[in-house]
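REQUEST ID: PR-0412
SUBMITTED BY: lab tech R.K.
PRIORITY: routine
TASK: structure prediction, single protein chain
INPUT:
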Amino acid sequence: MKLLDQVRHVIRKKHYSIRTEQAYTNWIRKFILFNGKKHPKDMGEREISQYISYLAVKRNVAASTQNQALNAVVFLYKQVLNRNLGDFGNMQRAKRPKNLPTVLTKRKN
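STATUS: complete
OUTPUT:
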């Protein structure tokens, strides 16, 4: 069975939504393409960190998008390939925008 078919099988077995399945398979495919079509079993923390950092620095994705990509790749390694991953401490994270509160005041006449 092909890798993405294995991912779909595990996602369906865990009763994840169809949108999660679509998003995860899309991010996993992009991760593999980013690494020159190497099989994920031949890669590890270094390649994952490089990819997630690339999303933040070069692609300038939102923090939530970067987190979704990371969750998809971690799902692949933990749930499909049954492999524990190490630390991702050296990875560039996307910055969350700072929300300033809106202060409503009465306008003086």
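NOTES: The helical segments are 3-13, 18-34, 45-57, 63-80.
REVIEWED BY: pending
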